[in-house]
Structures are given as C-alpha cells and as structure tokens.
C-alpha cells in the first residue's frame, strides 16, 4: 500500500529523512495543488534506491533525461536518436550506456544529474499546498538514470542552497536567539559547503545563532538559513526541540499510512 499524505502534515525534509534512514526503494511523487483549479498541477517524481535518489523528473513519460540531454546539445540529434533506438536498452541506465559509447563523459553525466535533481527538489520548498505519495519497490526506469545517485538528505541540502526565495519557509527558520546543537557523531556523510561546515562546527558546543553570526561575520538571516538546512538534513537541532523531534520522528509517523490519496 502506498504511503501518502499532505506536505502540511509531513514536511519535505522529514519525508527525505525517512526514505534515507529506512533505506527505502521506490517512487516518490509530489503534486502541488494549483490555486486556480482550472490549471494543471505540477508533479515532481523521484526514483529512490536504498535511500538514495537515482533519478528525478517532472514528467511520467520517461523522457525527462532524454529531453535534458538534448537541451545540452553535446551530441547531434541524429546520433542520439540512433543510440536510443539501437544501442541503449530502456532497462539499462541511459547515462552509463552513453558513457560506454564515448559520447558523454562522467563529468557531463554528473552535471546532468545535478541539474536533474536540483530542478525537482528546489521547487518543493516553495509548495505551500500539495500532496506526496511513496510507492515502494517500483521499477526504476533506465531512461531516467545517469548512473549517479545522492543520499536523500543531501538532495534536501542541494535544493535549499539554490532556493531563490525563502518567504515560504520564513516562519520555520530557527529564532536568532536559539541555540543550535549538532546531533551527529563524527563527520556528516553528506557533502556540505564551507559555511555549512563552519556552522556545524560551532553547533558542537552548542552556540546561539547570534553568536555564530558574530563569529563568522555573517548576516543573521544567512545563519538562520544555514541552520535550517542543517536541521532539515538531520545534522543539527534546536536543543529544546530535540525530544520533540525524537517523539515525532518520520519513521514513527509513516509506519502507518497517512491520509491515503492519489498524487
């Protein structure tokens, strides 16, 4: 049975943490509900394997990566069409096939994967009213796979770094006077940028966001956003909320399906 619900009940970071911690495999989809009921809603698809995102698209016809590759104009339409028809079976990762034939390099495929995931994750944080659905053990379409993957929580970080407007999340940012505390042992498995690493280091004490901003000579709003990213990725927490997050962890909230609905 699919796990489904509203993102107002379970946030995008919580859903991604649940998938990663549970090493889930399947298809995760988000559907934004349009303000104008006459307009089609946008849908974002993520294929997950053992808690890692391996592909993403905003279309269900399995031509998202094909379209993205064509936009880059790295190879001629004729050559690409021939490879798709004769040389790259649909059940195998398209990116690996193109790399094996020498038409795309590993750096190009990594760039494609970054664009592919970022284009779908970033808009999720601007959805104010929408639904999600996770269908376990769904087949992963080879035509949408570059051969790269990323932990689900690292995809959260990617999307939030490139968020153009924080208005939709402004009410969720930790207060400037709040302390930030690291909740991990050792080094994070996600790839953090320089400022995220510095703020995470300060959170090992812990320290208030005001103090961190002062030490790093950053605007407090910038530090609040970085702290939000670390919290969203499950790397830090505001201490007085740690016991709350443990009692409402997504793994416990999702074991029983929520508000079952079609996305």
E-strand count: 9
Number of helices: 11
Strand order of the largest sheet: 1-5-2-3-4-6
Q: What does the largest sheet look like?
A: 6 strands, antiparallel
Number of domains: 2
Bin the helical content: 25-40%
Strand content: 15-25%
Tell the overall outline: globular
Rg (C-alpha, Å): 20 Å
The end-to-end distance, rounded to whole angstroms, is 14 Å
Give an account of the 3D structure.
- There is one protein chain.
- This protein is of the alpha+beta class.
- It has two domains: 3-162, no CATH class; 175-237.
- It is 40% helix and 16% strand.
- It has eleven helices and nine strands.
- The protein has helices at 12-21, 64-72, 77-87, 94-100, 106-121, 152-161, 194-202, 209-216, 220-232, 242-247, 250-254, and strands at residues 3-6, 26-32, 43-49, 52-57, 130-136, 150-151, 179-182, 207-208, 236-237.
- A six-stranded antiparallel beta sheet has the order 1-5-2-3-4-6.
- Strand 3 (43-49) and strand 4 (52-57) form a beta hairpin.
- Helix 5 (106-121) crosses helix 6.
- The longest helix has 16 residues, at 106-121.
- The chain is globular, with a radius of gyration of 20 Å.
Helices and strands, with pairings:
Layout: E1 3-6, H1 12-21, E2 26-32, E3 43-49, E4 52-57, H2 64-72, H3 77-87, H4 94-100, H5 106-121, E5 130-136, E6 150-151, H6 152-161, E7 179-182, H7 194-202, E8 207-208, H8 209-216, H9 220-232, E9 236-237, H10 242-247, H11 250-254
Helix pairs in contact: 1-6, 5-6, 6-9, 7-9, 8-9
Keywords:
263 residues; alpha+beta; 2 domains; six-stranded antiparallel β-sheet; three-stranded antiparallel β-sheet; 9 strands; globular; disordered C terminus
